[in-house]
Amino acid sequence: RLSLSQHHLFIAEERHKMSHQIVGVILVCLHVTASEEGIQILQSPTQVWRTPGQTAQLDCSLSKKEWSIVWYKEQQSGRLQWIYQSSRFATSRGKYSSKVDITANKFSLNISNVQRNDSGVYYCGLSASVYVQPNVGNRTRLIVTDAAEPSLSILVPSTLEDAEHPPVIPLLCLLSDFTPPWSAVLWDTGEQVSEGQMDAGAIDGNGVFSVWSLTTIPSETWNQETTCTCTAKESSMGRSISATVSTETERRDAGHCGIVLYTGLPCIFILLLIQLLILLWRKCPIRGRAVQRPNEIPMRQIPQTEYATVTYKNRNAPR
Q1: CATH 3.30.160.60 is held by the domain 41-144
Q2: Where are the transmembrane segments (predicted)?
Q3: How many angstroms separate the CA atoms of 100 and 90, rounded?
Q4: d(CA 46, CA 226)
Q5: Per-residue pLDDT tens for 164-208?
Q6: Lowest mean pLDDT among 167-176, 234-243, 302-311
Q7: Does domain 151-251 correspond to CATH entry 3.30.499.10?
Q8: Domain residue limits, the chain
Q9: Highest-scoring range by mean pLDDT, 65-74, 107-116, 158-167
Q10: CB under 8 Å to 188, separation ≥6 — which residues?
């Protein structure tokens, strides 16, 4: 048995050991976090274009030696979905495989037989099971398309004819489903030709890549008979496609909408009223045309009488 003093000494030693263990864990976490912050992750290329059926390679380089990294694909909601872990001894997983160069600290993700639904933004990062707050690279965007010619359209603000316009009218030109040669978008507002302000682009849920080009024109110019043209040009073969919008067309369309609104609704009301009268006429019988049918008796309930020839013999008759 331990004496009371020995018992207290034993408890003190155990507490001392536990405090050293806790301090050690904290130091390890701080070391891991510090090491993580010192690792730089660089992805290349920034953008990859492929046609369906080809193979896409995404590269990820680290500033320090690591044995594995994780690949993510960004969802439409903005969340990152785990798709693959690259390491020296990793095996293929579906269409995903990896190529690792440990000496160069380089990890490559290969996506075979790419399709439109593979289009998206990909990130490489450090494993969450090793680092407290894993960081990711600068992203690589994969665009898969086989479109021979892009789609081009212009969007204008929708306002009523008598509404007051803002000082400037914004116009948006949407260029979608295109390949790299179709890059330049030019605006012709009748007064000048400019490139406008172009965004970085985005990929929708169907894997279609689109970019916006924005330009503005003064309200005074928009109120006049103005024609605005958006043109996309292909640098390799010199082809171009255009979309045009005119203020006269917009006013005429607005006038047509007003005509439909003021003349179409009464016509619809009259048609509904006619249908209602027809239904009421069918349900109400006309006087003098009602015919009362006699009570019909089924054939099996009609009494049947059978007649037969009877031979009568008179006993008083002479023989």
Answers
A1: no
A2: 259-281
A3: 9
A4: 40
A5: 778 888 899 999 988 877 767 889 987 788 888 888 888 888 888
A6: 302-311
A7: no
A8: 1-38, 41-144, 151-251
A9: 107-116
A10: 228, 229, 230, 231
